[in-house]
Amino acid sequence: MRCSPARGSARSIRWCSRAFSPDSLAQRISDCQSRVVITADEGLRGGKKVPLKTNVDAAIAKSGGVDWVVVVKRTGAKIDMNPTRDFWYQIAA
Fold it and tell me: Are strands 68-72 and 86-88 parallel, antiparallel or unpaired?
């Protein structure tokens, strides 16, 4: 899996289904001028938790920002949410 345009979407929306480092994700956000990032609170890889939302926050800080972050609740981990940018998919859907 890779970070790619969401099917049927404009190139400014990215779905990141893997655990990219903040630097790698920041580069992808910048390269395609993403306005929306879709992520999960955490992911699981090899039985270990991966802080996906935390990585997205760090990447956004490095890349200059996005308009929206859609967060899917997967593990239920406590995460920081930016009230003007982030929202839960489960609530919005």
Answer: parallel
